[in-house]
Design goal:
This protein is an alpha+beta fold. Helices cover about 35% and strands about 15% of the residues. The protein has two domains: about 100 residues, no CATH class; about 220 residues, Dipeptide-binding Protein, Domain 3 (Dipeptide-binding Protein, domain 3, Roll). The protein is built from 13 helices and 16 strands. It has a five-stranded mixed beta sheet. It starts with 8 loop residues before the first helix and ends with a strand.
Length: about 350
């Protein structure tokens, strides 16, 4: 088995097409939507497949620094969510490949969406009403102001892709919020997060099968330098639920408590939630033997190396089909996990 690492994903795709990789996980929506409808796929030589299983998935969003006075009003935080046009971004920039989040623990729910609460939709009129209720009025320059202080937001940013953020900034500015990007190195961003010196920051959190929500959400961690409670959440209801979670005797009790914690977080709006993938996108040469559940119940795309094998007969068929320019039977476009 040999691994190759290619930083540029477009170059990696070209290497795959040349047969330099056996399989290629596609993590960029635009590449999947535009560049993977290959002749090799049409002929069945290469499989273009989405695989769905129950892998734990975290959440991503703009964390709001609740330590800042301007963000302590829930109406301001809700307004920030209402001004993020996720549907437009998903359609325009990501080819509708992502699920819009309404949960901080999305893998508790089928399809990673909580059916008990609505997904926040873009609504600038409602955002304006909330900001007015919070005491903000436009000044002579059209900027929102309260007690002589302009509502100003700086986005701490360490990445180079600003497409989503620029759309968001325009919508924030359209209602009178002074919004800008503070672009820094990753090391500088890490230090400023550790010291809680930020307004909003885009971050993507992973997840595991065994949940430990306390470090991220307990009030006791809100002031700890380097804490992952980046938002600075301090809430008595969440603290009580976390204490109950420690002594929960069964998986069912823990899941019920996690759902209560998640519901409370939804009410508090410590993040402007973004989106999450709900499947694994794979290209692979059609010479594999593959089990019914290709990545297992909880596996990621690298589970290919654990569960799949090169099938000698299938490999020979692929070689003959390519040599004779003949089509093969196509692999299914989607595979759903089957089992408990």
């Amino acid at each position: 088995m040999r691994y190759r690492f290619i930083e540029d994903r477009n170059k990696a795709l070209e290497a795959f097409k040349k047969g330099e990789f056996d399989y290629f996980p596609v993590h960029t929506a635009s590449i999947w939507a535009i560049k993977t409808h290959l002749e090799e796929v049409q002929k069945g030589w290469v499989a273009r497949q989405k695989i769905y299983n129950r892998i734990p998935r975290g959440f991503q969003g703009f964390v709001i620094n609740l330590r800042e006075e301007k963000f302590q009003d829930i109406r301001v935080r809700k307004a920030l969510s209402l001004l993020l046009n996720r549907s437009l971004m998903n359609k325009k920039l990501m080819y509708e490949e992502y699920v819009l989040l309404n949960s901080y623990i999305p893998d508790l729910y089928p399809g990673y969406v909580n059916p008990q609460v609505p997904v926040v939709k873009y609504d600038p009129d409602q955002a304006r009403r909330l900001l007015k209720e919070a005491g903000y009025e436009p000044n002579a320059k059209g900027l929102l102001e309260k007690d002589g202080r302009i509502l100003s937001i700086r986005f701490l940013q360490s990445g180079s892709d600003l497409r989503h953020l620029n759309i968001y900034l325009q919508d924030l500015k359209s209602v009178g919020i002074e919004a800008s990007i503070d672009q820094v190195s990753l090391s500088t961003a890490r230090k400023r997060l550790d010291d809680f010196e930020f307004d909003l920051y885009w971050i993507n959190w992973g997840a595991g099968r065994l949940k430990d929500p306390e470090p991220m959400w307990h009030s006791g961690t809100a002031g700890d330098k380097g804490s992952i409670n980046l938002a600075g959440v301090k809430d008595e209801k969440i603290d009580a639920l976390l204490e109950s979670y420690k002594t929960a005797a069964s998986a069912e009790q823990r899941i019920a408590l996690l759902k209560q914690i998640d519901r409370r977080l939804y009410e508090l709006h410590p993040y402007v939630l973004l989106w999450q993938a709900d499947s694994h996108r794979l290209l692979y040469w059609n010479h594999y033997g593959i089990p019914d559940n290709p990545l297992g119940k909880y596996g990621s795309d690298d589970a290919v190396n654990t569960y799949w094998w090169i099938d000698p007969d299938q490999k020979k068929l692929l070689e003959q089909s390519r040599k004779n320019n003949e089509a093969m039977k196509k692999a299914p476009a989607t595979v759903e996990y089957q089992g408990p």
